[in-house]
Design a protein that fits this description.
globular, 7 strands, two-stranded parallel ribbon, 8 helices
Length: about 200
Amino acid sequence: SAKHCLAISYFGREYMIHAYNLYPKISYLGVNENLFKASGRRRKKQVLFVAEKEYIYGYDLAEAAMNLIPKKIRPELKIVFGTNRSQRISENELVNMYSESLVTLSLSRYDTFGLVPLESMATGTPVIALNVAGYRETIIDLQYGFLVDFDPQEIADRIEYLLDHPKEVRRLGDHARKWVKQKWTWEHQVKNLEKLLESFIL
């Protein structure tokens, strides 16, 4: 049995305590802020959903929320997923999609950490995420986006708010980018991991 173990989030740690009676230290994942950055593309009337059309990923919530927005102002729901090779896109294409979107939806019902919100925030695009699991550790409500309940109407209201307030999109996005550079880069996380590993052998 291992003397030490790691979890990628406090949510993951709680699960390991409950399921295995293990008490891991936290070693977060990070994002490459030099790759995931604003591409300079003009924002489209588009909401990004980076996941498959499955219940576990909250596609039902995304679809229901979009249908609650009046047709005359409803943005396009852009869906990106890559189970099949033919559907995969390059990292640069993904960065462009983040950058030109109004907001990214992260609605997974059970995401231990969640890289999608970090990638989106790194490009300066705010996030609407469920107030569950790992999302609560990377997103601060009203500062870098919105944490919401399992409520399509609340999600729709947040999207409409951003449609009506482009300056707020920029403010949230700018703050989100600074937040990622401050805490969530790979360089920062690797340093934290090195400190943890050193403490294990001392």
